[in-house]
């Protein structure tokens, strides 16, 4: 049987993927030892990324003509704008996290946001699917791995639960299946480009999470 494109991405980028799901941010959550200040800084940069993610899914919406794709992509944008953004605003207030513009300007954060935005702006639909599959599959993987561990900060607990629940899992699986469908119709150069993007995203993610420390 021919290998699915999503499985090829995972196989060809196993080292980059494993490095990211083994990041100290993940290890610290797994051992219930993430410093509060690190999670607070993470929430600041993560909130910015949610705004970027709206743009990424908007590019994908433009670049597909399939109404089923469009419904799904618009629903994601709706959830990001109306659930995720208010969620981050409330969390920042409740944890009394001071705005820290220097954190958002960290070159590793800028490289991640720019890098993801540019893939979506310049790439075709399959390349955007590969980038978001990379980001979401990685979160689904590490959150599932740590979810049975004790986590004492209720906000971190909730964050892990949000990335193992049925909605998020369904979304990550949709990206996987949709990438595979696109992969079945492309030539070798296009498939190789998607796999390279998958690896690039893992590296950008690694540096982004470093910036929280
Ligand atoms: C830095 C960072 N990378 C990946 C995710 C995973 N993730 C969760 S929701 C979403 C976009 C909409 O589905 C993505 C990519 C994250 N949260 N933060």
Automatic annotation (TrEMBL):
It comes from the Bacteria. Belongs to the TenA family. Pathway: Cofactor biosynthesis; thiamine diphosphate biosynthesis. Keywords: Hydrolase, Thiamine biosynthesis. The active site is at 205 (proton donor). One of its GO terms (cellular component) is cytosol. GO terms for biological process: thiamine biosynthetic process; thiamine diphosphate biosynthetic process. SUPFAM superfamilies: Heme oxygenase-like. This is Aminopyrimidine aminohydrolase. PANTHER family: BIFUNCTIONAL TH2 PROTEIN (PTHR43198), SI:CH1073-67J19.1-RELATED (PTHR43198:SF2). Residues 17-213 form the Thiaminase-2/PQQC domain. Its EC number is 3.5.99.2. It catalyses: 4-amino-5-aminomethyl-2-methylpyrimidine + H2O = 4-amino-5-hydroxymethyl-2-methylpyrimidine + NH4(+); thiamine + H2O = 5-(2-hydroxyethyl)-4-methylthiazole + 4-amino-5-hydroxymethyl-2-methylpyrimidine + H(+). InterPro entries: Haem_Oase-like_multi-hlx, TenA_E, Thiaminase-2/PQQC, Thiamine_Salvage_TenA. One of its GO terms (molecular function) is thiaminase activity. Transmembrane segments: none annotated. Catalyzes an amino-pyrimidine hydrolysis reaction at the C5' of the pyrimidine moiety of thiamine compounds, a reaction that is part of a thiamine salvage pathway. Thus, catalyzes the conversion of 4-amino-5-aminomethyl-2-methylpyrimidine to 4-amino-5-hydroxymethyl-2-methylpyrimidine (HMP).
